[in-house]
Amino acid sequence: MSGAALKPVAASRVQLTQLMQNEHANLSGNVHGGWIMKLCDEAGGLAALRHSQRQVVTVAIDSMTFQEPVRVGELLHLAARLTWVGRSSMEVLVTVEAENPLTGDRVRTNSAYMVYVGLDNRGRPAATPPLECETDEQKQRMEAGAQRQRDRLKRREMHHIDV
């Protein structure tokens, strides 16, 4: 896909909403953090798939801090949008809000930057379309995403262990 046309951020945005039920609860009666992480990965993966129009795999999840609990009976809203694109890697920001469906009150519960790689038909990394930044905010997010990717690669080199 080298030389591919730019694709705007809006073209791959994803929004998911799911009712949190008893089957999603942990022993404390709140929604299990692992369940929320799974939904974040689904939303992020869908945004990366829509952008690249390829199968994608998750390669990194930056720190995910749970700021507020999510309770059974709340609606969980996940929003995913691309923030940076390299040759085959794509960074996606996923933000999560919990909504009390009786009052409509919403609270941000967590967010994370997640990195995906687009794959070709043989399962190898493949070029993805460049990201078109249409606003100053998107340009700033792209620059910050490029720096986060450089930092990830440095950390990977530092922790590389030959087996």
Structure description:
This protein has one domain (9-158): Thiol Ester Dehydrase, Chain A (Roll). Strands 2-4-5-6-3 form a 5-stranded antiparallel beta sheet. A two-stranded parallel sheet has the order 1-7. By secondary structure, the chain is α+β, with helices and mostly antiparallel strands. The chain has helices at 33-52, 136-158, and strands spanning 7-8, 14-19, 55-61, 75-85, 89-99, 106-119, 131-132.
Helix/strand layout:
Layout: E1 7-8, E2 14-19, H1 33-52, E3 55-61, E4 75-85, E5 89-99, E6 106-119, E7 131-132, H2 136-158
Parallel strand pairs: 1-7
Antiparallel strand pairs: 2-4, 3-6, 4-5, 5-6
The H/E string reads: EEHEEEEEH
CATH superfamily: Hotdog Thioesterase
* CATH 2nd-level architecture: Roll
Strand order of the largest sheet: 2-4-5-6-3
CATH class placement: Alpha Beta
